[in-house]
Amino acid sequence: xxxxxxxxxxxxxxxxxxxxxxxxxxxxxxxETALGALLKGPVRLHSSGRTDAGVHxxxxxxxxxxxxxxxxxxxxxxxxxxxxPDIAVASSEEVPLEFHxxxxxxGKHYRYSLYRGGRRSPxxxxxxxxxxxxxxxxxxxxxxxxxxxxxxxxSFRTAGCAAKTTxxxxxxxxxxxEGGFLRVDVRGSGFLRNMVRMxxxxxxxxxxxxxxxEAVALLLSHPGSSSAGPTAxxxxxxxxxxxx
Length: 244
Hints:
The protein is an alpha+beta fold.
């Protein structure tokens, strides 16, 4: 038996998220269908996590078991020939049977993109949140630094989050400018449901002067005492990399 690890890139615009579900076509379902056609039988993918509807990925990690001896190239080039244009396998490799993409992960890197132009951009509309008006970047960076470290992020999750603990370790939150875009790069050991999007929504409120960095510190020191900012739209979020 072989354990094959895939790095998958996808545009999540037209999908109901990563996980197979009854209310729409998912990335996982599309991948498993293509793998089944390639290997002439059902295949089950195990991923490093889930992404919601509309969220993108450059580095989703997934594995599957097979007794097929087809060359590794078939799981990248061959599989890509069966996948739609908005999903692709960036790389494939054989890993030890005990490797698990979720339980062995040490951390993840998400990037959230905000478009800063005064007018809407047709080219940016599917991959960035269009935020008009001035933003106080110094205040946003000050608030971002307060999010780094181990904190109780209970105020930064949406309903339906089934996590047993809301304590998470955040290694970095960087707010950077790139052309007409603002990039928020978040690296950490793990994340609650919609946590990154709520972090970004809170930072935007700080940038607009509707919330102070001190108010963000209060959210972390007294979780549940008040609510975080709005959940940023899903299309600005991309899973960049999973660390092992």
